[in-house]
Protein 1
Amino acid sequence: MTIWHDAFKKPHDACTFNQFYVFNSVMCGCFYCHEIYSAKAVVTFVRTKEGMPKTAVCPRCKVDCVLPDASGYPVEKSFIQIQGGYWFQNINKNIVGQDYWLTQLKKAGYL
Ligand SMILES: [Zn+2]
């Protein structure tokens, strides 16, 4: 079982049940397609769990991996790319280990 590091798990959590964060954000970014756009561009939300706020869907790639800036995480290209790399290249395709992505976060000044 993979233990997801908090440096990745916490921002990823902000991509779920994030409807109200999106409403209070100026910008959003997508961990899947790495696009950054106005929070107003996010118009589709899906309910993934009963009793919880809805989850934003990316207007570009339609994946529910939208990071709203009101979450407190930086909606910046480098941060989005590292997080996306971790979740979609490392975990799914096992290209490089977690340490690689932690190093990238440190190099970019996020850790
Ligand atoms: Zn996207």
Protein 2
Amino acid sequence: MANGVNEAEDASSSGKLGFILLVVKAAGGLTSQTESPFMKHLILRVFLVVACVPGRCFIQSSWQNDASNVNVIFDDTVLFKAKADSTIACADSCKIHTVKCRSFSYTSNTKECRGYGDPLQGRVDQANTSLWKRVCRREDYKYDPAFDTCIRFSSIGKSWFEASAWCNNDGAYLLITDTKEKQQATKSGLHSSEFRTHFRWWVGGYDYDDTSVNDFRWINGEPISDKLWSADEPSHVSEHCVNLYPSNASLNDLPCSNQEYFVCQEDLYP
Ligand SMILES: [Ca+2]
Ligand SMILES: [Ca+2]
């Protein structure tokens, strides 16, 4: 691929990614061989420790040069303007920007870096400029602005642990719907029609306490907020895994062995 940013990003993350996938593969094997909740719990913990350094995870989606927009900048949806020493430095600025930065332009002779939201319409001629867009790493993943990452819907039902391993095999994770806004997006957002194809979906929430005490957390380690549950949920001591109901944009706990459809997301910390 004639894509300097992409190649640089791959080079910087490939070693770490290879190690992570190796651990995930080992964890998947262990998961299939043991029924012990303790071992599964341990595997989750180990996986989380090695998978991600908070604030700086490997980014699965990548940048693609937009050949249809050569030597132009845009005067709408500009999130920031800054000087950057290189295209890669500009891409990093876009990636870490607090508002969803979906694309950027870099003008080589002036070193001007511009980050944009979507959609882009107001084109202005500007020599020595290239435009880059964030794209999903795989064609079966779709970018969802509510989650600010690429997501994939399963076409089969699996237990929660099988579903988690299935996402991990993509270098991805079960979906984290940790805000009211994200949950509402499953009901009325860009991919709501896909979410509504099934009554419920496994998402990346799990009860780390095997007793009657609840310790529901997202797989990034964050506690699940009380306000995200359906009425009277979580409901049962034997239900340790979390599903989402798109119809009322809320969560429920279920037995982890249930065969449910599931959604993966590419970045643990988008
Ligand atoms: Ca519990
Ligand atoms: Ca329940």
